[in-house]
Protein 1
Amino acid sequence: MSKLWLGCHIDMSSPHYLVGAVNTAISYGATTFMIYTGAPQNSIRKPIESMHIEEGVALLRQAGMDPKKIVVHAPYIINLGNTVKPDTFAIGIEFLIRELKRVDAMGFSMLVLHPGAHVGMGSQTALDQIVKGLDAVLSQDGTSVRIALETMAGKGTEVGITFEEIRYIIDHCAYPHRLGVCLDTCHISDAGYDVSDVDGILTSFDSIIGLDRLLVVHINDSKNPRGARKDRHENLGYGEIGFQTLSTFVHHPRLGEIPKILETPWVNDQPPYRQEIAMLQHNEWKEHWRDELEKTT
């Protein structure tokens, strides 16, 4: 049986940065994790020399984690689909080049990116602009880090909400070997896919994009019914998707080597990840598992 690569989003904050993130992941019982290199809402970044990268990588190896399974997420501010504000598009390209170099310097190999939004100009216009932006980035960054385009829920003017749109970006990019996909269970459900049919989802993904391009899966329940296009994550088993479907994704043999990352909401200012990871590892639902966290003061 292959190792279960299962973890969650973890803050990488001062003063311990990557060392602190690894220790937090260990305390949750995780075998991988996802980080932002700084706040996801802005482009402010600390010098990488201050982030204890070498010690952190040594610690994660010691804990049995694989640097190739660690996930970095790009900040939300990047919108390569913007044709309305040239400065926004240019800033996104510049920042993404620097972010890929940071990921490479940290010794990791993948960066999750929200494809972008059309801001009123139509999906096709945005898709072509994203291709243009990715070509500019990947021709200049000088790394081998792969960008995992995240499947989106369809909130606002987001694009990348169907497998076909993701495939269009890959097919038209001059550097398709540098592109992969991040499949988010909440997002695809909110976009209208029937996530309860796990085999059907994976077969469709494979035929349209190819499972060889699937680099990471975000495991999230959804507060909203299928097709709502809201993108509101929920804790495992408390949403519209349900624990068993999410556990089926986690344990599916076709996804054996792919890291699975939880982005579920905190409960009463407490991280739920130790409890959620344990339930998924044992494929066992614990009724009322949030009660203890909800009572914490």
Note: The longest helix spans residues 86-105.
Protein 2
Amino acid sequence: MELGLQTVHSRTARAMNLRYERADFENAAESLARHNIDICAHIILGLPGENRRDMLETARFVAQSQVQGIKIHLLHVMNNTPLGVWYKKQPFEILELEEYVNLVADILEIIPPDMIVHRLTGDSPRQLLLAPQWSLKKREILNHIDRIMLERDTWQGKNYSKSE
């Protein structure tokens, strides 16, 4: 079962009008776990107002939760959406490629070594995407993540601690 966590931060959830918070995710995950249903959590990196520490806190929460998988998404700002309108009126900071791939590498290091990684980045329709334009080059992003992992001599779970 896929559950969209996106962030553990209430202020961000409210700003993004998610209409659910961390406790709702925890309750759903506990209920699914009681029924032995595997869970994949979605998180979004680059939500407005969140910094590196905030995003890593969300990833640490997922690493310690009852989920078996994770999908890591980059915030995509698209035309004809409330977020797109907000961005056009009052542009907010968007992650750069280098920031994103380093965050993904950090997250891979702190999640359990046996957690299934279903996604490292997502796609948006080219004609609707406002930002970031670099996200259209998915193969390059994945190759860059591989390169960063090799350069760091790191791997999934390297810094995982069961009781963080």
Note: Strands lie at 2-6, 40-45, 69-74, 77-78, 116-119, 129-131.
Protein 3
Amino acid sequence: MLDNILKDKEEHMQKTVSALKKELASLRAGRATPALLDKVMVDYYGTPTPLKQVANISVPEARMLLIQPWEKSIIHDIEKAIMKADLGLSPNSDGVAIRLTIPQLTQDRRKELVKQVSKTAEESKVAIRNIRREANDEVKKLEKAKEITEDESKKCQSDVQKLVDKYIKNIDKVKEDKEKDLMEV
């Protein structure tokens, strides 16, 4: 019973860290990565569709993305979707493919992005702490219902805290790596 609570909460914590990594991957660090376009949704025959499902995205140069739609007829829809996504990138189309040149980041923009990384990481830490609170509430309910002893309750809460500490460290590491990546010139 307590093992199930721990497993369930650890799974939630893993998902929180994964979501943070995915969120931070979409922040551009001055070099091209297909993850920049993960949030771009193209109007494909009236249905919002992720860009990577309607085109091949490659990185021919360190600061360029090449988007090759599988259907040439949707090239304008892709351009519109990129502009609408407000990535600060201007699509350059030759009728067959779209090139996105990633501009060099200014120092001010880097600092802005670092603040955004910190904010996003802090939100993830709050989510982890909320998971801890849920776990502790469940354990206390079991203790109150006399399904577990006070010692078992304390041990489980201690184990939950160890998980929280581990995942907060993971978040700090992810944040640190992304900040380092952003501040590289």
Note: The CA atoms of residues 118 and 175 lie 7 Å apart.
Protein 4
Amino acid sequence: MNKSPRLVALEVLNKIFINNSYSNITLDNALKDTEGDKAFISALVYGVCERRITLDYLINKHLTSKPKPKIYNILRLGAYQLIYMDKVPSSAAVNESVNLTHDIKQDYYSKLVNAVLHKIDNDREIPDDLSVLYSVPENLLNMWIKQYTREKVLPFLPSLLGRPPVFAVPNTLYLDNDELSYELISEGIDCEVQGDLVRINSGLELDKVKSFSNGLFHIEDSSSYDCAVSLGAKEGETVLDVCSAPGGKAFTIAERMNNKGKLYSFDLYKNRLNLINIGAKRLGIEIIETSIQDAGIYNSEIPLADRILCDVPCSGFGIIRRKPEIKYKELDSIKDLPNLQLEILSNSSRYLKNGGVLVYSTCTLNKKENEKVVNAFLENNKGFSLDYMKTVFPSIEGGDGFFHAKLIKNK
């Protein structure tokens, strides 16, 4: 018997919230095994993840004690449909949530679910509190305001909710952004040119897009693209991408090099390097060489490079709209990241030629992982100078939150 879309969504949410699984991977795996309404399932899962704090506020007003986690997730699903899904009738949102208690053999809680959701339906007021309104934990919100000021934080909070924009990077070995836009429109895909890129405005199933299969573009966020371009890689140069997978920046760099020179792409895991190899083959890129390498350990066999991209592991606070569960992690859980980031940056710098360029980047908004790491590196490496540091805040129609710094090794 096929599971209902709501039951599939509930099972995914249980894995995310109870087992701390990644939302994108867990959802993708679930969608492969279902014949249900995949768009509806995705909307439920991401919607509940994004709005969890808001939903919990609405639920907790009508609870005297917190029920089992699976029942709490049923309440979140029901509340999300009531408040944020206009096309779902209130009766369906309530009744189908009650049915979920039967599906998971928790009939005892059916009356509770029914009563709480009816009360939420009659009292939909959400307070004008930033944490509740935008579903951002107070500790993360306070950290951002302390580091970047309230004036800079408030404008980007709305962009943390809802689906992020999708950008196609034209494969400049074959075509430019205008030509790619024409190709996509001819395939019935709603899109528009935005800077060097093409922003996709409609749904996109890549395995069914001919121009993707033919290697005419790859998908990469605009902030990530700008970072890769800032490296300034040129034809014939030797370039290192020390934390490369899944390869979006490497593809952009190789295309900017006009597929001439050498680009070494490193990562810790073979399966992630395979993603780069598959993508490079599809795009017709021949200068990328992948190999397993721990970016924090020096390898004398790696050649000196003209340019190095050091995109380090980070807390990911700039890509919350893509992986909404990230915002719920405890800040203490990331306190050791700056040490790892500095270690990778310091080690990577050893491969750079005199006069070479190194770009350090993260997809997070946290000065401890960004400016402080760069400043600590410069303090310990007098042979390097800072060209610039740049923080990009997420926007509704623009790129993700991102940071990159351009460093020059003095001749």
Note: The chain has a mean pLDDT of 96.
